[in-house]
Amino acid sequence: MENFEFFNSTRILFGRATENKIGEILKKDRIKKVVFVYGKESIKKIGLYERVVKALKDNGIEFVEHSGVKPNPVLSHTREGIEKAKAEKVDAILAVGGGSVIDEGKTIAVGAKSKKDVWRFFKRQDEIKGALPVYTILTLAATGTEMNENAVITNEETKEKLSISSRYIYPRVSILNPELTFSVSATYQAYAAVDAIAHVIEYYFSGSYCPMIQNRFIEGLIKTVMDTTESILKEPYNYNARAEFMWAATLALNGLAKLGIKGGSFPNHMIAHALGGIYDLAHGACLSIVIPAWMKWYKDKNPAQFERFAREIFNKETADEGVSELKAWFKKIGAPVSLKDAGIEESHISKIVENAYNIAEVWQMNDVYTKEVLTEIIKNANY
Amino acid sequence: MENFEFFNSTRILFGRATENKIGEILKKDRIKKVVFVYGKESIKKIGLYERVVKALKDNGIEFVEHSGVKPNPVLSHTREGIEKAKAEKVDAILAVGGGSVIDEGKTIAVGAKSKKDVWRFFKRQDEIKGALPVYTILTLAATGTEMNENAVITNEETKEKLSISSRYIYPRVSILNPELTFSVSATYQAYAAVDAIAHVIEYYFSGSYCPMIQNRFIEGLIKTVMDTTESILKEPYNYNARAEFMWAATLALNGLAKLGIKGGSFPNHMIAHALGGIYDLAHGACLSIVIPAWMKWYKDKNPAQFERFAREIFNKETADEGVSELKAWFKKIGAPVSLKDAGIEESHISKIVENAYNIAEVWQMNDVYTKEVLTEIIKNANY
C-alpha cells in the first residue's frame, strides 16, 4: 500500500428537504452576500429556485444571480461571474445545480480572490492561494465535485478543457437531496452512471498495485451505480435508488477510492476532455465512448485486474468479456459507445488526438500517451 | 436511505516513516507545547519514543510527558493528565499509542479546556464546549479513535466504562504508519480484528434498513479485516497486510459505515463495556464473547440481513451458519468466545447484567435492553 495523505473538509447534509437549511447555514457561518450560480430553467421547474430564494431572504442573506451556466461550463461566462463577485464584494459562492454549475462556482470562488486571470491556474502557470467559501446544492449526482477539490472549465476560444485542483475549493457545505434528482432524464442518468464508474475505474485499472480494500470498495460502488441506475431508469421516483446512486457518485470521487493505489492516472478523463473540448457532448457521453476503447488498448497491460473486474462485476472469466460486458451495459442504458454513435466522423480523429495530446502535456502524461498511442485508442472508438 | 450529516475533520498521514513529520506538523500549526501521552515501554522498545522526542526537539516543541496509560484507560490517571495540561499551559495533546492512549489524550484535551470535572461529560450531565487540539501517532489499529469523535474511559471507583462524543475531539492530525504495528502480538491482533468487525456489524445488523451501498462497503471491510488478520498471524512483518488492516480499522469507525442506515445502535459495545468495566479484559476480548451471544438472541429479528451476512462473508446459506462461522473464526484467531474462556464464573452474570443495564440507561437503550433481555444475552455466553 502506498503512502497517502487524506483530508476532506466538506460537510455533507444528505436527505429530504435539506436544501431548505441553506439560509440558516450561511447565516451561522456569518455569510452576508453570495453569488447565486445556476444553469437555466431546470431549478425553477422543480421549485428549487424559489425555495433557495426564500431560505436566503428569511435569513437576511443578500445575493447576486449568475445564471446560464452551460453543461460544459465555459471560461467567458466564468469570467463574468468573477467580475460580479468582485464588483458586488460577496463573501461566498452558492452553486445550485449539477457538476457544471458547481465547477463554475468553484472557479468563480478562486478568481474572486485573485488579481490574476483565472485561466492561468488551469494552465498551471500560477498556484491557487485562496478562494471564497463555496456552498452547493446538488441537482445531478455524477461528477463528485460536491465533495472534492477539483473543477473543470472549457476555454471555448482555444478549445481547451482543463482542470484545477486545490484544497481551497472543497465546498464548505454540500447539500444532497436525492429528491432534487427525480427530474434527471434517463439520458443524463446514463451519463451520470458512466461518469461515476469512470471515476473509480481509472486508478483501479491504471495503477500498478491496487490494495484489496480498494478493490472491494470500488467494486461495491460500481455494483451500486449499476443496480441503482437500472432501478432509476425503470422507476425515476424511486427515492432509495436515487439516494444510493447519489452517495455512490460522491464517494466515487471524494478522494477515498484512490488511497494507497500505486501509480494510477486518469487517462480516460484526459481523452474524454479532449472530446468535450471540441464537441458539445456531455462529459458522460465522452467517457462511454472512450472507456471501452481505452480498455481494449490497456487490458493486456494489467490482465489480473481486468480478469478480477470481469469476475466480480459480471461473473465472467476473461478480461475481454469484462470489457465487452461493460460496453454492452453502457449501450443498454443509452450511452454512446463509439464516435459514430456521437456523430463524429473518422476524419476528425487527428484533431481529437491533437487536443488529447495537449491535455496529456499539461497533465504530464505525454510520456505514455504519445500521439501514436492516442491515435490507436481513439481509432478503437471509431466504428 | 435515512437523512444524514457527515463531516470528518481529521487529516490522515498514512505510510512509512510518517511519524517523523510530527514535529514539523505541530510547528506549522503553531503549537509550542504539548502533553505527550503514552502507555508503558512498548513505544520505547520499537524506538518510536526517541524518534518522536527528536522530531519535537528539532522543531522546538516543548513537551510534558504523561505516561502509564492503561489498556482500559482509567479516570484517575486521566485527571492527572488534565492537571498537567492545565498547570503547564500546553496548546495541544500528542497521543502516541493505541486506542486507549488516544482516548485518554482526547479526554485530557476536553478536561484541559473546562473548569468542570471531566466525568460529568461522560455521565452526559454537561455538554462539551471545546478541547485542545489532539494529534495522534497510532501504534495499534483497532478502535478507529484516530479518525473519530469518540473516547471511552473507565471510572475505576464506580466500575463504569462510559464514552464521550464531540466534534471537538476529532484528532486534528493522525499519523498511521503500519510498520509501527509490526510488534502487535498475535493476541492483540486478534482482539483488534474483533473490534474492527464489531464496529461495522453493529448498525449493519441492528438497523431496520441498511442501504446496499453500506452492505457492500461493510462486507468489503469485514473481508479485508479477516483476510489481512490471517496474513498477519502467519507473517507479522507483512507490510501490505498490516497497512490494509490499519486502514480498514480506521474506516470501520470514522462515521462512513453508518450513514443512511435506519435506526442502528451499539448493543454489543454496550455489553462489552459492562464486561470491561468489571474485569481487566481487553475490549476486543469482551466483544468476541458478547457478539456471538448477542447474535444468537438477535438473528431472528433481522433474518434477511443475517442470511446475507452468511452468504457474503462465509458463502453459507443460513443465518445460524453465519453466526457459528463467525464464532469459529474468532476462536480460530485466538479470541475468547465465552465467559468460561475468560475465566468468568456463572455466578457473576447478575453483576454483569447490572453494569450493562447501567450503561443501557445512560445510552437510553434500556427500553429494548431490559435486565431480562440482558440476562438472556449474557447467559448465551455462559458455557
Most residues in contact: chain pair = A-B, 39 and 39 residues
- The domain tally of chain A reads 2
Q: Helix- and strand-based class of chain A?
A: alpha/beta
Tally of strands of chain A? 9
The averaged pLDDT of chain A comes out at 97
Q: Which of globular, elongated, flat, extended, rod-shaped describes the shape of chain A?
A: globular
What is the CATH C level class of the largest domain in chain A, in words?
Mainly Alpha
Low-confidence stretches of chain A: none
Strand sequence of the main sheet of chain A, in spatial order? 2-9-6-5-3-4
Helix content of chain A: 40-55%
Question: In angstroms, what separates the terminal alpha carbons of chain A?
Answer: 40 Å
Q: How big a fraction of the residues of chain A is strand?
A: 5-15%
Largest sheet of chain A: 6 strands, parallel
CATH superfamily of the largest domain in chain A: Dehydroquinate synthase-like - alpha domain
Give the CATH architecture of the largest domain in chain A: Up-down Bundle
Family (chains A, B): Belongs to the iron-containing alcohol dehydrogenase family.
Organism (chains A, B): Thermodesulfovibrio autotrophicus
Enzyme class (chains A, B): oxidoreductase
Protein name (chains A, B): Iron-containing alcohol dehydrogenase
